[in-house]
UniProtKB/TrEMBL annotation:
Organism: Vibrio olivae
SUPFAM superfamilies linked: Periplasmic binding protein-like II
The organism's place on the tree of life at top rank: Bacteria
The protein's name: ABC transporter substrate-binding protein
Domain Solute-binding protein family, residue spans: 85-424
Amino acid sequence: MIQPKQWPWLGLIASLSLLTGCFDRSSSTAEQQKAQQSESSQRIKLAMLLPPRSALNPLSDDAFKLSRWSTAETLVKLDQQANLLPSLATSWEQLNATEWRFEIRPEVIFHDNTPLTSQAVVNALNVAISASPKPRILDGVELSVQADGEHAIIIRTQVRDPLLPQRLSSPQLSILSLNAYGENGVISPVKAGTGPFVLTALHGTSSATLERFDDYWGEKAQAPGIDVSFVPDGMARAAALRTGSADIVEAIPVSQAPLVDQNLVHEVPMPHTNTLYLNTRRGVMSDPAMRAAVRQALNREQLVNNVYEQRADIAKGLLGPAVAWAEQWRQPVNYPVQAAQPKGQTITLATFTDRTELPEVAIYLAQQLTDAGFNVKQDVREYSQIESDALAGKFDAFILSRATVLDSGDPVAYLYSDFSCEGSFNIAQLCDPNIDQALKEAAQLTGVERQKAIIAAENAILASDAAIPMLHERVIQGEAAHVRGALRDPRERELIDNHTYIARDEAL
């Protein structure tokens, strides 16, 4: 079996089929080659950080790839200020405390040429609701969906949920055609979305191919297609930008940024917090006094200066400067437990290689904790190989670069999934009824009162030392000089849309 190349765009087709008929075949072949070369040069070459973890199953974090490629769409979307905008739903209204009605956009067709109907929307949402585990955005939420005619749905929540429309903006609740959902829970987004680009092929964890969807309900894409390569190695991603092998590059490592033309690199302030999760359920870190010892041992400034070369901000809480309102409501944390003396206790510190800086962070943290009296072992692997062990609580400490408003544009969903008793991403294994109650109270509020309640919940989480925020990242995105309209999205939901294109012939 021939394996797909890592960079499928590096060569043009070597030969073309001979044309038959009563005309100049050589002339036609030359014209065809010229047209094909022109279109090939206009395709967007994209180098991405993480390979798919679940064959692009939209219920997983792979959903954010589908949204960044503009192939799968949700009922609503968020603007830069996290305000709701129409997408596959044209309007919505709250009927009462627990019921919402959404009007579905008419005359939309999926990439498999089937129509978007209320039945398709209900099916997609019901699959997500009944999934095990559920998408993080649905943690702690009980809801039901039913069709209301051909182009409307009604969603009912068990309790009042002011965040419901924002939840529906999560890429993990993308609407795919009925044909995308197979047996045994298999979901394939290939030729199943509604966006301006149709996903035509996924080549394992190596690459993916997308073509322009000419029947898109909105403005047709300017680029003829996207050629995606998954390049976990940070040096290789930076090299791809320098050599022109890629037009757009995700997450150039801090160490590589100075080696790239500075006109091609763009810092995007992200709601990413580099956090040390401590195992509260078993092992050395189940002792609150040991967790306090870890907190006191950390030198955040050393990490920001030495690892991130000052392209990051020292963390004051779980929510960083990208959540603009957080700092004004934050209060000093009253830590209830005094730090213990480690006296040689052995702990396992784990992280993953996919984000280039994290293994180096682990080296510095291991030294800091060793200096404090711990005996530190390290476990560093690719994320796809380590996530299940982290979620199962097999490590004493785990370093994670965590997006704090990725799922809904609101921190409640992140805090619930990571720190509640029923959270699906609870690496710290934390279960505190007081924290759960604080999160439930925050979820019921709106406006300034909601913000204050979120910060109160953050304060309670910090007081447990289950998660120690270290720094807030700025992601470095690479764009070749001929790229136009690439999106620099702090929430990492969007990257290429129908207005992104390659302008090789334009004056730079």
